[in-house]
């Protein structure tokens, strides 16, 4: 069935948060609609919209916190004959223009992962068929929208279309990062992902330079400090707990045993990062103090989410931070792939 709306992917279990975020943001932007989802399905549809293109423009992917991927929803194809899944997809694409590539995907849920093999083999069959009909270009063309086929079951798929400038560049919306064997903790990957996802390449080059000073609040065992130290920043690592030897061996890291909610830098710093496990309000409030006092120019911090009302808490904590920071800031928040019950925020 042809349809119009949005299709967004999320971490399984966070469908209610993504549904609430899309519903609230769409309503504020003047596009009331409704979200359809199932718990642990890893995706949300936003339906009942008259102008899906305008809604997609009003909700840029980079501003959505819980969406790993954002697509225009083109069609919901149920009851496909497993012997010929290509024909109904071709039919649904009639009049939808040309795409520059096709990705066949599956939700990142327990159920969805079982469809990984099917998605791969079906993609290999679908691509040449779409090329032959002129529905996708001969060679990949990133200037054109990208077709997504989200397999929900052997006989059920959702079709979506991504604007490559306004969508995740990663299949399933999951960035591929390689863990470093010598990093003090797996958390290092989280800061690496945050820097990659929340800053542009140009911003990374401009904002992170050798010799800059940073504080890492809640630093132990030292994964985040290690990421900053590898970029040749000097790091004050604040934690009452022990740092890993691999972090202490880096001469630019100074471990200071102190309370991260009380410690103040000896002079204004370029960066502050914070991974303290505490109530999100308490963290948001302390992060705001750092900006109000002018103690840092840029920050990346985590907000651990409560068990219930996680969207409300997310929105309220970000508002509290913005209100208390005492100056207009560029604030970007996202639930990263490596984030479990938390979101990561950049401010600067
Ligand atoms: N980012 C670290 C890494 O990459 O290795 C992991 C941080 S771990 C999730 C949280 C840390 O916050 C713990 O080491 C804990 O001791 C520290 N912490 C919690 N409350 C703190 C406080 N009030 N002051 C300083 N550190 C605190």
Description:
The chain is of the alpha/beta class. It has helices spanning 15-28, 52-58, 86-93, 110-113, 116-132, 187-198, 201-207, 223-230, 245-248, 280-292, 310-324; strands at 2-9, 34-37, 43-47, 69-77, 101-105, 146-153, 156-162, 213-217, 234-238, 253-256, 269-274, 296-304, 331-334, 342-347. The chain has a 7-stranded mixed sheet. β9 (234-238), α9 and β10 (253-256) form a beta-alpha-beta unit. The longest helix is centred in the middle third of the chain and has 17 residues, at 116-132. The model has no long low-confidence stretch (mean pLDDT 96). S-adenosylmethionine (SAM) is lined by residues 184-185, 187-188, 218-224, 238-241, 259-261, 275-278.
Architecture blueprint of SSEs:
Elements lengths: L1 E8 L5 H14 L5 E4 L5 E5 L4 H7 L10 E9 L8 H8 L7 E5 L4 H4 L2 H17 L13 E8 L2 E7 L24 H12 L2 H7 L5 E5 L5 H8 L3 E5 L6 H4 L4 E4 L12 E6 L5 H13 L3 E9 L5 H15 L6 E4 L7 E6 L1
Parallel strand pairs: 5-6, 8-9, 8-11, 9-10, 11-12
Antiparallel strand pairs: 1-3, 1-4, 2-3, 4-7, 6-7, 12-14, 13-14
Helix pairs in contact: 6-8, 10-11
The site of S-adenosylmethionine (SAM) has 22 residues, from helix 6 and helix 8.
